[in-house]
Structures are given as structure tokens and as C-alpha cells.
Design brief:
By secondary structure, the chain is α/β, with parallel strands linked by helices. It is 37% helix and 13% strand. The strands form three sheets. An eight-stranded mixed beta sheet has the order 3-2-1-4-5-6-7-8, sandwiched between helices. It is elongated.
Amino acid sequence: METPNLDPPPREALSPNGTAETDHAEQPAAARQLVSRLDATEATIGVVGLGYVGLPLAAEYATQGFETRGVDLDEDRVDRLNAGDNYIEDLDDDAIDGLVETGRLRATAHYDGGDEVDVWFLCVPTPVTATNEPDPSYIEAATRSIAPHLRPGQLVVLKSTTYPGTTEDVVAPILEEEGPDNLTLGEDVFLAFSPERIDPGNDEYTTANTPVVAGGMTETCTKMARRALGQIIADVHTVSGPKAAEMEKLLENIFRSVNIALANELAQFCERVDGLSMWEVVDAAATKPFGFMPFYPGPGVGGHCIPIDPHYLSKVAKTHDFETSFITLSAQVNEDMPRHVVDAVIETIAREPVRLQDAAVLVLGVAFKGNVSDTRRSPADEIVRLLREKGVGQIRYHDPHVEHYGAPGADGGDARTEVPSVDLTPEALRHHEATVIVTDHDAVDPGLVAEHAPAIVDTRNALGGIDDPALREKITLLGAG
């Protein structure tokens, strides 16, 4: 049988450094088998973790005609998906329902029948511990669950953001030790890392049209990863190995963390200079058509990646006797911003004729970014916790994307205390001595807030369009002196 072309059509084969290559060498039989099944749309795709990364990925493969199985230990999530109930905002409800109805997309809470899967994608959480140490336990558990189901012709791709070395030092040993004895990585089973690139709430860039990076344990592993990803993504950039791909993902997010920290630190300086606004300064600098990218201050960073990734890099750096001083300091600046915001809220309340224990504060937006419902590591968590610690009498929230919200308790543990939600009405705004804008959702009317809230701390410049001098007097803008 003629050896199939191992590179995803219609792109030309690329070497790890991105240059064109010609490779006529005989590939392992397992690789040829996998390529044939992928090209014929006969491969079965398995996605472990059906969250904001896993479900869009699974849906894209199912849309392209692949039988796709999702595995998630959350049985409620599994039941919802199998009923055609979409729970990810960025996905179309009817599209998910249609994929489930055709049978191309289904979910399960177990790994039974895992030997039928040709390509496994691991899209599991990678949190940090209470002491900010990386926690790879979800990766380890998922890898142990698929290891007994390994067979020749399978590809395993880790997509969870992690530290350099995870694929080779954590995933590979588990597959080798707990998988069948007669299988060899790189010959029978293939392993690679390809970081997720999901931007919740972004309508322009989706799973299908966002370029991705991939690096395999061997050259053949890299080719298999590129071939599999190329079925749904046109631009797959390969690198020399998993470490480079893992480090690339950290660079993406730490780049943002560092620049946001710069904006936050300069914002605090601008607050001390009368008439100086960091927002005006950034907008002015952004007129330069080269050498500058705008980053804006805010109440802190949220979501899964940016608050966590500096700690992941710091961990592996210490094992190499290296201290990431600059990156660690930047992370600290961002982590301190909620306290800076709370200080501004307390100062605002102090100007009102009310005791702190009798004051009411409205937190406007608890999602970690605008126009999404994701509250993971939202700055609102620490802001609410600190307001409670300061003794503020009543704390409520409004968020058009978040129906229920609980903030961490005083001990900072996993237990969360529910925060009452209120409708955004003139009466509700007037009832609170201070309103703090934490998240800038488009659905919130800035004019309504500016007119009816007695005092406002705006951490996002959400009220930047309010020109009335009388209304501006009520607004304390983060980063403006």
C-alpha cells in the first residue's frame, strides 16, 4: 500500500521551524492507519473535559463529520449536553442540538469503549494550590483513565495550559507505565501538546479560525498532531517539541499579565497627579502605528490563565535555579489591584453621611471580563471578600450574564457565600451609597448608572462617555488624578 501523505491538506508539509520539507521516509504502520482514518473522516475523536475549551473543540470535529465523544465527570453537564442543551455562551444553541440529534456529538461520564477513540484531547483544568503551586492532578487523573484503553494508531494531545515539561515528565510516564506493555510512544501511540487558544466572548476568532501551535514527543508525533488538528483548523504551526509549545502558551498569557501590570502600576501613579488620566495616556500612545500595543488598567486579572500562568512558570524556573523576579512582581501588582479598588470604595463611602457598617455597596459585574458569564478567579471575588472584611454592611451585585454568584469566605477557601443579586433600576442604584464597576458589560446602560448612583468607582472607564460635569463629580475613575 502506498504510504499516505502525513501532512494536512491543503497545506504544504512544514518542518518544526516552519520551513518546507520533503519527507518520503517510511512511517510507522500505526501512523499510516491514523492518517487514513482521519482523511476518510472515520476517526473517532475523544475530548476529556467539556468546558469552555473542550466543548467548542468537540463541536468543531462533530461539525466536520467526525464521531465525537466527550468525557466529563460532571454528570449534570453530560446529561445537559446529551439532551442537546448548550451551556457555552460562544456556541450556537441550535448547532449543538443538531449535532447531538445526528449522533455525531455525545457525552459520557466514563471511559468505557475508550479503545475505539483514535484521537484523545485532554482539556482539563490546571489550577494552583492554596500556596500557588501548580496542581496537575486533573491531567494525571485523565491520563490514567485513558491509559488502559491505548492501542496502536491512537494520538493523545494535551491542551490544558501547564508548565514546560508536563507532557514529557507527567503524561508520557503515566501512558508508558499504565498503558499496555507492548506499545511504544512514537511508534504505536503518539503524544503531543497543543495549547488551547480560546477567547470567551470573541465573535471574530473561534476554534476553527484561530491558528494553533503543536509540538510532539517525536517528529512523527508532531505530524500526527498537525494532521489531526488540520482537520478543523487551517493554520497549524509546529514547534520542536512539547516543551516549546507549553512555553509558548505561557508566553502568550504572561505577556498580557506583564503589560496589564505596567498599566495598573502607572494608573496608580496617575491617580496621584492632578489632571492626569492613564486612559487618556494609553489612547494617545495607541495612535503610534508601530512598536506599541494598548493595555488598560483594571480591578485585577481574572479567568483561568492570566492569574495562574506566572505561578506555573515560577515553579519550573526554580527547578532550574532561576528566579522569575520580573514576572512574579508583575503578577503581584495585578493581585494587589482588588485591594486598591476596595480602598477607593471605602474612601468614597467615607464622603457619604453613613457609617461603614450601615453602608450598601453595589458590585456591578462579577464575570472576569465583559460580555461573558465566566466568573473564574474574577476580581470581584477578592473585592467582595475585602469589602466584607472591612465591615461593609450590605453587598449586592448586578450582572446580566451571571444569575447566581458566591464570593469566597474570609478564609479564602473553596466555600463561597452567596451574594444577593438585584435588578439594575434607578431605585436599586439610589439605595447603594457606592457602586463599583468591576466588569464592563455592554448590556449595562452607563447613563443610567451615572445618573442614579450616588457615588461610583469606575475601574474600567465604562462611564468614559459621560460628559456632564455634575455627573462626573460622582465618579472616581481608576487611574485618573
